[in-house]
Specification:
The protein has about 300 residues and is of the alpha/beta class. It has one domain (about 45-205, about 230-310): Vaccinia Virus protein VP39 (Rossmann fold), CATH 3.40.50.150. Helix content is about 35%, strand content about 25%. It has nine helices and twelve strands. The strands form two sheets. The chain has an eight-stranded mixed β-sheet with strand order 6-7-5-4-8-9-12-11, with helices on both faces. It has a four-stranded antiparallel β-sheet with strand order 1-2-3-10, with no helix packed on it. Strand 8, helix 5 and strand 9 form a beta-alpha-beta unit. Helix 1 (about 65-80) packs across helix 2 (about 80-90). It is globular, with a radius of gyration of 18 Å. It starts with 10 loop residues before the first strand and ends with a strand.
């Protein structure tokens, strides 16, 4: 990508390696001088690539993992305060998104679309927590369409393949994987009911974790992440898609520090080892303090944004 979606071609560059599974190769990014985002200067991984298969977390089927996530997310859904406490330690508890869905007070006629649903753990968690609406997930990396317990429908494909309109559309850790963020948000806008809500959770580039760890920052995740957004870049993309940011929820976690420490020490994150868990337990107090400071200063490495259609 020679040009940022904001239209700028200027900026500084850096190189990063794949750090989840210690794969070979170096990938070039450019930090946009206009919007501050960091974009991958090559084609982002496609459905044919192996970067999203095998051990990549969102697509793995695991009864035990699903059960743990459902229980943790259920607790977070029912208790906002407990949800933030759990979610600050466990990165798979999406307490920012859960809070928005809970506050919507959706009924049994409500329709929710989860973009990039993977194996459907987030939707299963919602159903387990008591969400009564119709749940649909879409993901191009699924092996095929599936119908899960509780009437949850998973569809292999893109947002454009979905029929109908939705009250809530969740895009949780998905937008950063797209080299066409404006297109993704525009398609979501087209599928949104009048008065509906789009909820986007993304890593944020340039915060405390990036400044401290640089290319070892765990949420850099080269080359899966095609764009590492800033608040400015997301605002530009949303506006271009006919949307506006209504709310930001600072929901970064200890993972930004603990995961980055693991990568810095060993060079890769998975598979986790006993020493990694010992590190988390030993430094949990300091990690929690660092998270609180980063959030207070607006420098956490993740936020959830509530988007609505722009006022005409």
């Amino acid at each position: 990508m020679d040009e940022c979606f904001c239209g700028s071609t200027r900026g500084s560059s850096f190189e990063a390696r794949e750090t989840l599974f210690e794969r070979e190769g170096v990938h070039k990014y450019q930090i946009c001088s206009n919007c501050g985002s960091a974009r991958l200067m090559e084609s982002s991984p496609t459905v044919q690539d192996d970067l999203y298969g095998g051990e990549y977390g969102t697509l793995r089927e695991s009864g035990a993992r699903t059960a743990v996530r459902c229980l943790a997310n259920c607790l977070a859904y029912r208790s906002p305060r407990l949800g933030e406490s759990i979610g600050t330690i466990l990165p798979f508890v999406n307490y920012g998104v859960l809070g928005v869905v809970r506050a919507s007070q959706a009924g049994h006629k409500s329709r929710l679309l989860d973009v990039g649903c993977g194996a459907g753990r987030f939707l299963r968690s919602l159903r387990f927590a008591g969400f009564r609406g119709h749940c649909v997930g879409i993901d191009p990396f699924l092996c095929g369409d599936r119908l899960l317990a509780g009437g949850i429908q998973l569809i292999r494909g893109d947002i454009s393949d979905i029929h109908g309109h939705f009250d809530i559309i969740t895009i949780v850790h998905v937008l950063e994987h797209s080299d066409g963020p404006v297109r993704m948000l525009r398609l979501a806008r087209e599928k949104l009911k009048d008065g509906g809500t789009i909820v986007v959770t993304i890593p944020l580039f340039g915060g405390t974790a990036w400044r401290r760890y640089g290319k070892d920052w765990v949420q850099l995740d080269a080359p899966r992440h095609a764009y590492l957004h800033t608040r400015t870049s997301l605002g530009i993309a949303a506006s271009a898609a006919g949307l506006r940011i209504e709310q930001e929820i600072h929901d970064s976690t200890v993972f930004q520090f603990w995961g980055s420490d693991v990568v810095k020490r060993r060079g890769y994150l998975f598979p986790l080892q006993g020493a990694d868990l010992s590190l988390l337990l030993r430094r949990l107090g300091s990690y929690l303090r660092d998270v609180a400071i980063a959030k207070r200063e607006g420098l956490g490495d993740q936020s959830t944004f509530v988007l609505r259609a722009s006022l005409s």
